[in-house]
Each structure stands twice: as C-alpha cells, then as structure tokens.
Amino acid sequence: MTQIRMNVNGSVESLDVEPWVSLLDALRERLGLTGPKKGCDQGACGACTVLADGLRINACLALAVQYDGSEITTIEGVAHPLQEAFVRHDGFQCGYCTPGQLCSAIGMLAEYEAGMPSAVTPPGAGAYELSESEVRERMSGNLCRCGAYNGILDAIMDVAGEEGTR
Amino acid sequence: MKPFAYVKPADVEAAIQAAAQPGARFLGGGTNLVDLMREGIEQPDTVVDVTGLPFDTVDDLPGGGLRIGALVRNSALAADRRVRERYPMLSQAVLSGASAQLRNMATVGGNLLQRTRCPYFYDHASACNKREPGRGCDALDGFNRGAAILGVSASCVAAHPSDLCVALAALDAVVELRGQDGTRRVPLTDFHRLPGDTPEVETVLAPGELVTAVELPPAPVAANSRYRKVRDRASYAFALVSVAAALEVRDGVVTDVCLALGGVAPRPWRATEAERLLVGGPADESAYRRAAEAELAGASTRRDNAFKAALATATIVATLRELSTGGDPR
Ligand SMILES: Cc1cc2nc3c(=O)[nH]c(=O)nc-3n(C[C@H](O)[C@H](O)[C@H](O)COP(=O)(O)OP(=O)(O)OC[C@H]3O[C@@H](n4cnc5c(N)ncnc54)[C@H](O)[C@@H]3O)c2cc1C
Ligand code: FES
Ligand code: FES
C-alpha cells in the first residue's frame, strides 16, 4: 500500500492504494466519483477523461500513485458554460461519454488558449481561428457511441465563439 | 494486473540502480506499459517511475540543434516554438499520433519504447513470437492488413507504431542512453532492431538502461518539411503508411532530402535508397516516383497488405511534390 494525497475537486483526499490501482478506479471505487466512466479501459475512447493539474488525461491508463500530489478535476467539480451548451445543442443521447467530453473540451479550450497547435493547424500559423475542423481534430480522443458529434461540435463552437479567437 | 512494487527515484543513479534488478521496468507516462500490464503481456515485479528525474526540458544545442529530454511530454514537444520552426515534421508527427489526452501523458522516452499494435501480440489465444518466443506467428497467414512489408522476417511481420520515431529517423536523431556502465549515444536508426529470428528483442537498449535524451543535429533543410500520415480514420488511428520528408530544391534540382517511412516496417524506416536516387536529380514527379519505387522494390507483402507498397509510393510522391511546390500540407 502506498499513501497518496490528491486535491480532488477542491478537497484534499488521502488514500491508501496498491500501486496497480488506476486513477480511474481510485476516483470511482474509492472516492465514489462515478462521473469519469470506464468505457474501454485502454485509452481508446476518452470516457475516463479528467483534468490533472489542468491537463486532460485518460484516467484509465494512469496509475493513481503517479498522481500523488496532483490536483484532479472530474465532472463532479466542473461548473462551466459548456454544460448548458451541451443541453442546448443536444450534445448527447445516452450521456455515457458526456463527462469525458466535457472535461476534454475544457482542457482543449485551455490548450488552444495556450497556443497548442493541432494536426490540422497550418504550419507556421501564428494566430488562427478555432475552426470546426480544429475542434473535430482536437476532440478526436473522445468517442461517442450514440454519434452525437454534431451536437457536441455545435455546443463547443457556441462557447468558443464567446471566448474569441487567438 | 499482476501485483508489483512502485518506486519513484529522485535521481538518475537511483533509477538505474532500481532498474538493474531483474523484473524491473521503467515507467514514463504509462500509456503503453499500463495497458500491456493490464493485458498480462508485461508483468514487471517493480515499476520504476522516472518522471521525477530532471530530463523534462527542450534545450538549444550549438549550431541550431535541439536536445529533447526523455521525459518531455509529447504535447510539450509538439508545441515547442523551436521544434515547430526548425523541424515542423516533428511537431506534425507527434500531433498526428494518439489523442490529445494521451499526448499530455506520454513521454518521449516511452514513445521510443512503445511496443507493436499487431493484434496477435495482444491476443493470448494466438501465436506471437514477440510475446512468446518460439510459439510462431499467426499474423503471417492471418489478418495482416496492418503488418509491415519492409525489413520483416519469417518469425515476425509486426509494424512499429510510432509516428514521432519516423520524424526522428528522418532527422538523424541520436538517442542518449545511460546505464550502470555510463552514457552512450546511438543513432535513432540503429536503436530499433529488425526482427530476424529474435523479434522479442526490439531495441539495442541493455536491461536497466535508461533513455535520457534525444538530440537533433542542426538541419536547415528541415525547415521545409512535412509529416503525412495515411490511416483508416481521419484522426486517432495508427498509420497504415506515413512519410516524414524534408526537401531542398535549387534551380529545379534536389540538393538535399531526408526521407523516412512509418507503418511499413518493424522499425522507423529511413529511406536511404530513395534519398540516394533523389539527390542531384530533377525535382519532378517522375523522379520522385522512381525513387519511391526503388525504396519499395524490396517489399515483401502478404495476403492483406499488398496495397501498402503502392500507398507508400504514392504518399512519398505526394509529400515531395508538396514540399517542392510549397503546396498545402493536405
Ligand atoms: C489508444 C491509443 C492510440 C495511440 N495512437 C498512437 C499513434 O497514432 N501514434 C503513435 O505514435 N503512438 C500512438 N499511441 C502510443 C503512444 O504514443 C505511446 O503509448 C506513448 O508514446 C508511450 O509513452 P509513455 O511515456 O506513456 O510510455 P510508458 O507506457 O510509460 O512506457 C512504454 C515503454 O517504454 C519504457 N520506457 C519509458 N520511459 C523510458 C526511458 N526514459 N528509458 C527507457 N525505457 C523507458 C517502459 O519501460 C515501457 O516499456 C497510442 C496509444 C494509445 C493507447
Ligand atoms: S476508458 Fe479510458 S479511454 Fe476508454
Ligand atoms: S451520448 Fe451516448 S455515447 Fe455519447
């Protein structure tokens, strides 16, 4: 057993975990935070996306012990205009991928603000617009089995539009 | 997952010491190792987390090169201004791999050491010489659409999955290794091994040896470079074929070129034959095609992957054409 300490959604949690416990299982099974979902458990779907020190990661491929001392945000700790935008634009059907989509979108907007390029950003681009193709590419790590992609895209574009262009 | 001990050393000597024990493995971001441990393919007794070591910066080298610490996250590497200006293909290669979440986790060292995505390697029910040496290879006559066509052997046709490494191969990158006997430097193109009859031995890394950095020599030609990846989905999929290319043309003649291929070989494939034919020749499409065809002439294809030779040829031609016309990357 290793004792770890994480700030989860604003409250400091001390946990005794075996080294093989994933961050996802620690959040879900030990802390009762079932927002992050176990979709594939192999990094291929994004349903488990949480923010670790502000960066979006897949909690299923993370060992909890690696995140000792980190600040973790799950959907339970999120209050963001994207949530209402998802409702307005039908950004989900069953809702299973939604917590991951929202955490991922929040991380994505922060990456864009910080100047992170994507695979579709033109080489040498300085300031560029967060276009629909940019958002699709940047959100490609979150699958939606219900196929609510168009609604998800509209919701993100709606909120990103208010936040402006780099 | 099989139980294991976890240590996170704060200095490199302690990390190398800990990894010298049999059954010990280094842990970077964990995006490959944790997955393989969960599948029971990797079963370390001790996991040595190296992310506490001070190898997490990108630094300038004299003359315009860069030294990339082994613990730099893939996303930080792709975002680095100097990488984007001096070696655009490298940033593009990283950004074309995995997802934003995984790139935030994955380290450069871990990316170099990631293992194949051949489905038979992952499936305990089938034969795989990488997973169980001597058991055979079900990919040879199975579903082998993703398999390699260059550098393969009768015991393994698995392709190397990394995008980052393809750009590094094109850029003459040098890998710095540190073990109990000190530091050594290996060209990236010699770092990964061809399968031969020991496909389970994938690199020249000695047990317990740590990747500490990757160095890129100055390469003015690389300012005009591209990474082009062809795959089944537009994003978040491994390459069927990929091309990393840098090109310099003067008065219609190719004066410098760097070319490497991904998705087609058990290691990142430096296309030396094509490079040799291109340099000094005309910068036109038929010369590009001849060079690409010569590189692929040794291809050994199987039931489902014969298309890769033609796809690689066409992708090389398209990438060089873009670079010589200053065209749009897509
Ligand atoms: C769904 C999915 C899709 C992906 N798609 C792509 C893709 O399209 N293109 C692509 O290139 N990659 C892709 N990847 C792979 C990803 O890039 C790798 O998993 C990642 O780069 C590994 O880095 P890591 O730091 O997480 O390695 P880890 O998982 O921590 O380690 C991997 C291996 O490297 C060893 N290791 C780690 N650091 C060192 C070091 N410093 N010295 C010596 N050994 C070390 C470990 O012991 C282990 O054997 C994908 C992964 C997933 C899960
Ligand atoms: S559950 Fe983590 S990516 Fe699918
Ligand atoms: S809303 Fe059902 S999986 Fe996305």
Gist of the model:
The complex is a heterodimer of chains A (166) and B (330). Chain A is of the alpha+beta class and 166 residues long. Chain A has five helices and five strands, in the order ββαβββαααα.
Can you give a write-up of this model?
- The complex is a heterodimer of chains A (166) and B (330).
- With 166 residues, chain A is an alpha+beta fold.
- Chain A has two domains: 2-76, Ubiquitin-like (UB roll) (Roll), CATH 3.10.20.30; 81-162, [2Fe-2S]-binding domain (DNA polymerase, domain 1).
- Helix content of chain A is 33%, strand content 15%.
- Chain A has helices spanning 23-30, 81-88, 98-113, 132-138, 149-163; strands spanning 2-8, 11-17, 49-52, 55-58, 71-73.
- Chain A has a five-stranded mixed sheet with strand order 2-1-5-3-4, with helices on both faces.
- The longest helix of chain A has 16 residues, at 98-113.
- Chain A is globular, with a radius of gyration of 16 Å.
- In chain B, strand 11 and strand 12 (269-270) form a beta hairpin.
- With 330 residues, chain B is of the alpha+beta class.
- The longest helix of chain B has 19 residues, at 307-325.
- Chain B is built from 13 helices and twelve strands.
- Chain B has helices at residues 12-19, 33-38, 74-79, 81-86, 88-95, 100-105, 108-113, 119-122, 164-170, 188-191, 272-278, 285-296, 307-325, and strands at residues 5-7, 24-27, 46-49, 58-60, 66-69, 174-179, 182-187, 210-216, 225-230, 241-250, 253-262, 269-270.
- The radius of gyration of chain B is 19 Å and the shape is globular.
- The mean pLDDT of chain B is 97.
- Among the domains of chain B are: 1-52, Uridine Diphospho-n-acetylenolpyruvylglucosamine Reductase, domain 2; 222-325, 2-Layer Sandwich (Enolase-like, domain 1).
- The interface between A and B is large, with 40 and 42 residues.
- The site of one FE2/S2 (inorganic) cluster has 12 residues of chain A, from loops.
